[in-house]
Amino acid sequence: MKIPGSFILLSAVATAQTVIETSSFGHGAMVAPSRDGIPGWDLGGEGHSPQILSNKVILTPPYPGNTRGSAWSQTPLSHSEWSAEFQFRATGVERAGGNLQLWYAKDGKDKVGSASIYTVGQWDGFALVVDTHSGKGGSIRGFLNDGTTDFKSHRSVDSLAFGHCDYSYRNLGRPSVVRIKHTNAILEVTVDDKLCFSTDKITLPAGNTVGVTAATPENPDSFEIFKVVLETATPGIGKAPPIQQQNSNQQPIAVQQQGGAQQKQPLSNDPRSADAQFVDLGSRIQLINHATNNILRELGIQGSKAETRQTDLLQRLATKEQVAGLDARLQRLESTLLSIQRDLEGKDYRDRFNQLHETLRSSHLSLTESIKDNFLSVITASTPRMGFFIFLVIAFQVILAGSYIMYKRRRANMPKKFL
Question: Is pTM, for the whole model, over 0.85?
Answer without folding.
Answer: no
